Amino acid sequence: MNKKILTLLVSLVLFGSSCSDFLNVNEKNPNNASAVPPKLLLPAALNNVAANMNTPGNVEFAYLWHGLWSISSGYSQPSNLVQYNMLNSSYQAIYNNSYIYGQNIDEIVKGATDPLDCYYLAAAMILQAYQFQNLVDIWGDVPYTEAFKTSQGILKPKFDKQQAIYEDLILKLDAAIKLILNAPANANAVTGSSDIMFGGNMTKWAKFANTIKLRMLVHQSGMTGRDTYIKTALATTSSVGFLGAGEGALVNPGYVESTGQMNPFYNRYYSAAGTANADGISYHNAGRDACDFMNANADPRIGRFFNAYSGTLFAGNFLGQAAPPLTAANTSKLGFLKGDPGYMIGTFNKSAPLLTDFESLFVQAEATERGYITGSTGKALYNSAMTQSFVYMGLTTAAAAAYVISDKSNVNYDLASNKINLILNQKWVSLNGVAPIEIWTDYRRSGQPTFLHFSEDPAKLNATPPVRLLIPQREIDYNNDNAVAVGKINAFTSKIFWQNR
């Protein structure tokens, strides 16, 4: 890996400083980061991870490939996306940033040598697991055990096997949870100013860790002979619980209406002056599959995910549609109402999600249906997930309660012939604009939703979207021997290890 990737980029939060001191994720730290206390590194680490995961350009392919977004007919359709012609240089940002910010997180681990800093150590380990899970889900084999070891002279780390990384991350999450549960009474508290996600609530950190763990294990549910491993792994932390209603992992360093210091999703579409950015909201439009699904099921959230193009009418295009696509004037834009956070684009100061409460509840619902966890019913967890999605989108719990008893089998748990498919289909639409990698992962591992229309470009390279991205060009340029050792990667056939279909 290029030594530059491993160069520490830290925006230090100094005593007495305003939140804007660490909102600039591009500010280089000229100091020796190893001397910086963990409590000053944690907020920058959280902010950077949130920015990486919530910048639309980093992950737009997942929304576009899976029927949730389209590209306005007012623009030429980018061939790499509509033809699935992924290059090694495609969508490198989330990879490169993960290792840059991962160095920052690793410094917390190295700096938390005092047993009383166990909470900070646990938080850093959880963030490591979160980042590496996403890296594996996108790229498969990645540098892991030799990453962040430039001080030991390792400038070109080996790539580890993806399943081995996943299994080690499960152990890392277990260890982090244990640190939290067994912390001494006089452990250094994680303060609200340091913890811009949970405000120092370590019970929620433990649940966050356990929820990441559950998500990783559910990803493997389609693998032959994996049930015993999954159940055994879950049993070790069964008493911890998972993120529930109102407990989403949402990051907010104190976003302000200033360039580079706003919510990263909002920042893609609107400027600090509140005006629409060029090639922003006019470029990404509604996907037809999402509009058709919500229209057919009378889903009141449609007016929050998207803006009506006329009156109460919502419509979208298929990716690469050419025969003919709806005009820009007759296509819904991504949902936005100035000052209202309950729309997809939200507001400049809306918290950025790492893992929402409703995603957690959907995962729990699926795990319950598969017999992995107990304590509630799949129906109760599904209904709670739907309720929290409504709340997140600015609607009422009463609206959610009325919706889940709809006469539609794609909505009402009791009417669904396949409960897991119901959960996954509603999870797909609910995570629109929130969790693109999980949307992509769910399709790859389950084939749900089955009604998606993939790119209509006649020159597309495959009938369905890629199952992974190719090894980033930076690794090929600076770590070529190790990149080559991974073997030949095919974007359509080199499946991530948990994909068993």
Task: Please give a structural write-up.
This protein is mainly α and 501 residues long. It has a domain at 1-55 and 87-222 and 467-501: Serine Threonine Protein Phosphatase 5, Tetratricopeptide repeat (Alpha Horseshoe). Helices cover 42% and strands 4% of the residues. The chain contains 19 helices and 8 strands. It has helices spanning 20-23, 38-54, 56-65, 79-82, 93-111, 118-139, 162-181, 202-219, 227-235, 264-269, 288-296, 302-305, 357-369, 378-392, 397-403, 419-430, 436-446, 473-478, 480-485, and strands at 69-71, 142-143, 159-160, 249-251, 284-286, 306-307, 333-334, 352-355. It has a two-stranded antiparallel sheet with strand order 1-5. Strands 2-3 form a two-stranded antiparallel sheet. A two-stranded antiparallel sheet has the order 4-8. Helix 5 (93-111) packs antiparallel against helix 6 (118-139), helix 13 (357-369) packs antiparallel against helix 16 and helix 14 (378-392) packs parallel to helix 16 (419-430). It starts with 19 loop residues before the first helix and ends in a 16-residue tail after the last helix.
Topology diagram in text:
Blueprint: H1 20-23, H2 38-54, H3 56-65, E1 69-71, H4 79-82, H5 93-111, H6 118-139, E2 142-143, E3 159-160, H7 162-181, H8 202-219, H9 227-235, E4 249-251, H10 264-269, E5 284-286, H11 288-296, H12 302-305, E6 306-307, E7 333-334, E8 352-355, H13 357-369, H14 378-392, H15 397-403, H16 419-430, H17 436-446, H18 473-478, H19 480-485
Helix pairs in contact: 2-5, 2-6, 3-17, 5-6, 6-7, 6-8, 7-8, 8-13, 13-14, 13-16, 14-15, 14-16
